[in-house]
Amino acid sequence: MMTAIVAATAAVTVLVSTGLDRSTSGSDQVISAPDTTTSTSSSTTSTTGLSSAATQVSGSVSAVVVDGAVLDPRELATPITVTAERGFGNGGRITGVTVEGTPATIEWDAGRPFVLSSGGALVLDPLRLELVPEGLRVQLSGAVHTVRPGTYHLDTPVAVGTSGVAAARESVVFEAADGATFEGRGDASLVLSGEEARRVLGPGEVHLEGTLELVEESGSREVTKLDAGEGPFELTLTPVPGGGWTVEGLLGGALTAT
Description:
This protein is an all-beta fold. It has no helices and 23 strands. The strands form three sheets. Strands 4, 5, 6, 7, 8, 9, 12, 13, 14, 15 and 16 form an eleven-stranded antiparallel sheet that branches. Strands 3, 10, 11, 17, 18, 19, 20, 21, 22 and 23 form a ten-stranded antiparallel sheet that branches. It has a two-stranded antiparallel sheet with strand order 1-2. It is elongated.
């Protein structure tokens, strides 16, 4: 059987972020790796919210779905490419920026990729992450991600609105100030390539399929499918040379496994 370990660190690249810097945003949900522990009468609880009773998981995975995933680190530097199918309300919006010195809102109606070719970085809000053949896809809709201050080049046809008037542009250069955001709509998403390990933190829900070993207080067992209910987690997903992914980490939610 594989030896279950808790991944300590992993290089991570991430995407767009929502107002995680606000008190009601995803930054309140971000948990750091456990450095210290606090004793309780029945168990030991780490600074991540995971107790010593948390289930350890390791093995190879063929399917991964994580809801509420916080990428660690959360920032994704440019260049960044977001895709969405044309129509069905898909696309995205950038606010809190200026274009040629004038406050502006940028609207993207999908179809063609949304390409930030240069600039600063996006900081992602908690999101849905799925394993796909190209890597790890992160869903950007349903959240407001932070655009770091800086000058950005957007090489995509968009509508730029200033003073209530919107004009079509084939590309645009904009300045992002503090508070600038990107909000995805519909199926707007991006793929983190399968070239480096990715660490994700909870709280949230986790679904894994593959050849997995679980280590619990009662002992260890091998399973092929598991679901962890809402709760804290720390997972590191690592690409395997030649194809495939492995997982290592801790799960704090109620488990169903077969």
